[in-house]
Amino acid sequence: METNPSGSRRLNKHISDTGFCSRREADGLIAEGRVTVNGVRARVGAEVGEGDEVLVDGQPLKVRTVAKNKRQHVYIALNKPVGVTCTTESTVKGNIVDFVSHERRIFPIGRLDKDSEGLILLTSNGDIVNEILRAENKLEKEYLVAVNHAVTDEFLRGMARGVPVHGEMTLPCKTGRLNKFGFRIVLVQGLNRQIRLMAAHFGFRVKQLMRVRIGNVKLGHLKPGQWRNLTEAELRGLIPKRESW
Questions:
Q1: pTM here?
Q2: Closest CA to 192 of 113, 130, 245, 94
Q3: Nearest to 206 by CA among 194, 220, 190
């Protein structure tokens, strides 16, 4: 529940609605003690009402307005180069927000390791992030991977069946050989450094990892560092039942 009859709403939604960050990132800020409501340190799950003063790092939130003739939110596809970190923290050198340098306040949908490259989506719409990442959506993510040993059928079958990562078995996935040292893998989950850890389970080291597809959105001909706006069809494909963006 996000609102109640008294007009209050969840603090994380209040923060994301200003365009400052996503709801998930807002929860992180709250948990770190960086958010206060009326001078009191906020707790995760807190609600705020009309007139409450919300500060992040002691600074008031600024609501970002959008011209009526512009789309309400921004949705872009970026070919992230190696070395760019998927964080909105301005203190992190090479963070993705500074790299894109968009005129709107945007943040990444999900993650892509600093050492990995390829497709990542970014948006100004904090409400949509969790919807897209929700596990039951089973949104496919396709990667091209180069490793340090020759790819074998046994390795591909083992990766496809599932591997213990972070104390749990990864979900079954699709794999296929590209060449002697390369393979393709399609996942429906996104555990931290999942492919690298899966490969390491079999004694393989990932030398290069590129994401080329998220759902119906393809990397296509985007060069490293380039980005483009998503099409309406791509947006509908990410969450088919959603009517407005």
A1: 0.72
A2: 113
A3: 194
Low-confidence ranges of the chain (pLDDT < 70): 1-7, 62-71, 135-136, 240-245
Q: Does one domain contain both 184 and 131?
A: no
Q: What is the DSSP letter of 188?
A: S
- The residue segments making up the domain with residue 122 are 75-135+217-238
- Domain assignment present for residue 130? The answer is yes
β-pairing, 164-165 vs 168-169, is: antiparallel
Same domain, 129 and 223: yes
* Side chain identity, residue 194: Q
Query: Quick check: 152 and 134 in contact, CB under 8 A?
Result: no
In tens, the pLDDT along 39-64 reads: 999 999 999 988 889 999 888 876 54
Same-domain status, 177 and 111: no
Our count of domains for the chain comes to 3
164-165 vs 54-56, strand pairing mode? unpaired
| Distance between CA atoms of residues 54 and 62, nearest Å | 10
Catalytic residues: 113
Contact 113, 155 (CB under 8 A): no
**pLDDT given for residue 20 in this prediction:** 76
What confidence tens digit (pLDDT) does each residue in 18-36 have? 777 777 788 889 999 999 9
pLDDT score of 2: 46
Structure tokens at 112: 């892509």
φ, ψ (nearest 5 deg) of residue 173 = -145, 175
**CATH code of 49's domain:** 3.10.290.10
